[in-house]
Amino acid sequence: MTRFSVGRIQELAGQLIVAQEAERERIARELHDNVGQQLAGLSLALSGLRRRIAQHDQAVLEASLTTLQQQTMGLADTVGRLAHELHPGELRQIGLVEALKIRCDEFQQNHGVEVTFGAAEDLMPIAPDVALCLFRAAQEALRNVAKHARARRTQVVLSHGTGQRTLTIADDGQGFDVAHARQESEGLGLLIMEERARLLHGSVQVESDAGRGTTVRISIPTATI
Q1: Which residues 6+ apart lie within 8 Å of 52 measured at CB?
Q2: Contact residues for 92 (Cβ-Cβ < 8 A; gap 6+)
Q3: 0.70 cut: is pTM over it?
Q4: Which of 106, 69, 73, 74 is nearest to 90 (CA)?
Q5: DSSP the chain
Q6: pLDDT in tens, the chain (225 residues)
């Protein structure tokens, strides 16, 4: 192993550790700011419900129970979304195409960005490791759209060409400096995406210009499937 490759591995390991810690921080912040607040709200609602039970006011009691039920359902949705982000179990149940459709619909509802999804009709079955790689790439690319792009529209397309499967995510946002992003912490998501693809002998291409949007293209050879 050459000195360069050892240095590269050490650099990559350090970057992945930073990325892992950043993801843990994001989940912790989500749990604290969202789940924690909802649990506090449920606690207050239960305290109020206890007082209303003592008052024997049926109408007020029913209204309180309805509110409590809605808050509980909201909390369940939040926890389910976090679990989904950590491990998308539906990939094995419904397949990559349907899982991507669901993710695109959720993204559009949560962020107000119009998302168009398309998939080739004659796609062959996709192996679990390939499906997970492409799904995670879509998650990361859409997360970047929400966080940085200021886009109005995004297109997600799953296709196949000569000897490969390709997932393309394109937005009409403000674009960014790709070379600069690779050198900064904001490029860690892209780095992880590239490493996932590399493990499957695939590649990631990113095209972006200021004011002209961003296109991310992940290609995995069918020979690895």
Answers
A1: 60, 61, 64
A2: 128
A3: no
A4: 106
A5: --HHHHHHHHHHHHHHHHHHHHHHHHHHHHIIIIIHHHHHHHHHHHHHHHHHHHHT-HHHHHHHHHHHHHHHHHHHHHHHHHHHHH--THHHHHHHHHHHHHHHHHHHHHH--EEEEEE-TTPPP--HHHHHHHHHHHHHHHHHIIIII--SEEEEEEEEETTEEEEEEEE-S----HHHHHHSGGGHHHHHHHHHHHHTT-EEEEEE-TTS-EEEEEEEEGGG-
A6: 444 455 665 566 666 656 666 666 677 677 666 776 777 777 677 777 766 676 666 777 777 777 777 777 777 677 666 665 666 666 778 889 999 998 999 899 989 999 999 999 878 788 888 998 899 899 899 988 998 889 999 999 999 887 889 999 999 999 988 877 766 655 667 878 888 888 889 999 999 988 889 999 999 998 654
Q: CB within 8 A of 160, min separation 6: which ones? A: 120, 122, 123, 124, 166, 222
CA 208 to chain centre: 20
> Is the distance from CB of 158 to CB of 167 less than 8 angstroms?
yes
Residue type, 74: G
